Amino acid sequence: MISHKKYMELAIKFAEKSKGLTSPNPMVGCIIVKRGRIVGKGWHKKAGTEHAEILALQEAGKKAMHSTMYVNIEPCSHWGRTPPCTEKIVGAGVREVIIGMKDPNPVVDGFRELKFRGVKTKIGILEKGAKKLNEIYIKYMRTKKPFVIIKVAMSADGRIATKTGDSKYITSKEARAYVHKLRTEVDAVMVGLNTVIRDNPELTPRLVKGKDPLKIVVDSNLKIPKNCNLMQNPSKLIIAATAKAPKIEIEKLKHKGANVIITKSKNGMVDLQDLMKQLGKHEITSVMIEGGSELNSSAIKADVVDKMLIFTAPKLIGNGKAAIGNLGVNKINKAIELKSPVCSKVGKDMLVEGYL
């Protein structure tokens, strides 16, 4: 059993290499072992390209016969953008397949298919780690809505800006680089109109190498400044507005190459629940909110947030802008608790990570 775990850990490590690149597919890593030696390995690099299992089989060649395969998520058994992996696994003569977790996609039934075809099959090895790795994919598959993270960078007394609005930079360069890396791993980064007007952000991962995500601006009446940084690359920009937005503004923005999504309205504002549904239809599987206190509290109240990342700098600001706006909490016992919280140090700052 120990060797099973050791090789599954390796398969999960290989899967991690493709963070941010496989959406809307899961991250998959695969190891093929024969007589205690790794004879094949692979990881899925991008949706539409060959799956991890196929790459590992190609590397193993004839050595795949009578081998054991380790894969962090159930192999596909259906024709999608690529042929089913189960066929190739059976054809290569693999003797045993050890799987981390079941694929939540209802059309995938690789575990049962392999068993039916006479391959010895085990599922649920290091399942917790396998699920954590693909938490974005699991949520998207089950709900067809993106996995939503709120990122906050605040002072030790909970401020994200001084009372004059100055906010650059509360946290350390290490924390900012950490966030830039996260940007390469999500499909989209979201802010509200106020953040665009006040900070004119770029929302690019310029401190690290990696994929530049889509940018989403929540802007009910389409008042986004036409000369802001985000308008420099309009093909990467999605602006969410309500039906109150002037038609002429919609046309102007579309003409510039930006995407405009019209959502249902809630109290005259963009309905965030409806926005998440629409983003899901565009195959956007993950969104990181990097907005101000209003967007943060609205998203939490709309029940669209899955995870919080709170960076806290060892600084005091006093009067200033709170990290999260009104949540309607009047008693401490009604406070929202973060589930499975983890604390770590990033540069001089503390990072608290937890789920809602």
Elements, N to C (H/E): HEEHEHEHEHHEEHEHEEHEEEHEHEEEE
Strand order within the widest sheet?
11-10-9-8-14-6-15-18-17
Mean pLDDT figure: 94
What is the radius of gyration computed over CA atoms, rounded to a whole number of angstroms?
Answer: 23 Å
Envelope shape = globular
Question: Mind summarizing the main beta sheet?
Answer: 9 strands, mixed
Specify the number of helices. 11
Describe this structure in words.
The chain is of the alpha/beta class. Strand 10, helix 9 (247-256) and strand 11 form a beta-alpha-beta unit. The chain has helices spanning 2-16, 52-60, 85-91, 110-116, 127-133, 135-143, 173-185, 193-199, 247-256, 272-281, 293-301, and strands at residues 29-34, 37-43, 68-73, 96-101, 120-123, 147-155, 159-162, 188-192, 214-218, 237-242, 259-263, 265-266, 269-270, 286-289, 307-313, 320-322, 339-346, 349-355. The chain has eleven helices and 18 strands. The mean pLDDT is 94. The strands form four sheets. The chain has a nine-stranded mixed sheet, sandwiched between helices. The chain has a five-stranded mixed sheet with strand order 2-1-3-4-5, with helices on both faces. A two-stranded antiparallel sheet has the order 7-16.
Please give a handful of descriptors for the protein shown:
alpha/beta; 356 residues; 5-stranded mixed sheet
